[in-house]
Amino acid sequence: MKVPLLDLKAQYQTIKPEIDRVMAELFEQQQFILGARVEECESALARYCGVAYGCGVSSGTDALLAALMSEGIGPGDEVLTTPYTFFATAGSIVRLGARPVFADIDPETYNWNTLQLESRITPKTKALMPVHLYGQTADMDPVLELAERFKISVIEDAAQAIGAEDEGRRAGSMGLYGCLSFFPSKNLGCFGDGGMVVSHDESIIKKIKVLRNHGSEKKYYYKTVGGNFRLDALQAAVLIVKLKYLDAWTRQRQSNAAFYDQFFKQSGLADSGRVIPPRKKAGRHVYNQYVIRVQRRDDLMAYLAERGVGTEVYYPRPLHLQECFAFLGYREGDFPESEKASRETLALPIYPELSRTDQEYVCSVLDDFFKTR
Ligand SMILES: *Cc1c(COP(=O)(O)O)cnc(C)c1O
Question: What domains are there in the chain, each with its CATH number?
Answer without folding.
Answer: 8-243 (3.40.640.10), 246-372 (3.90.1150.10)
